[in-house]
Write a structure and sequence with these properties.
Blueprint lengths: L2 E6 L11 H4 L4 H14 L3 E6 L3 H11 L5 E5 L8 H9 L4 E5 L21 E4 L3 H12 L14
Parallel strand pairs: 1-2, 1-3, 3-4, 4-5
Bound molecules: 1,3,4-trihydroxy-5-OXO-cyclohexanecarboxylic acid (DQA).
The site of 1,3,4-trihydroxy-5-OXO-cyclohexanecarboxylic acid has 10 residues, from loops.
Amino acid sequence: MKRILVLHGPNLNLLGEREPDVYGTLSLSQLNRVVSEHGKSLKIVIMTAQSNSEGELIDILHRVRKKVDAVVFNPGAYTHYSYALRDAVSAIQIPVVEVHLSDIKKREPFRRISVIAPVCLAQISGYGALSYVKAIDKLSRLSAPSKGSKRGRK
Ligand code: DQA
């Protein structure tokens, strides 16, 4: 595992000022610094991107599919209903770990469902910035990522 894209979805550009009681006080650039430093300690290059647009997130996944070894993806609210993002994750060969800052299983009923998790290697939720760190750790332990290493693929 040499290169990982950390991809943030909608409204995560407002981290730090957006509902800090739920999402914490780190800004997006501070969070990106935490994950980049963690990657460096594992000799993994971390690239980061954020978009509020479903189509752009799909384009980014398509664009990086042969340039990085894995993706850590926080799809924000798209988690709960975007079949287009699910299809994009399913379409690419590299492993994707879905992450959330908050514990989506303990929040409103609509947040408890992820339509994307079944085509991801794993879902890690509820640890704040540590969710991303844990996802990078998990991916760093994979030796030869392949389509077969993805979970579900229903
Ligand atoms: C989130 C959880 C989603 O339900 C929400 O829409 C977000 C952030 C999280 O990281 O906890 O935007 O993905």
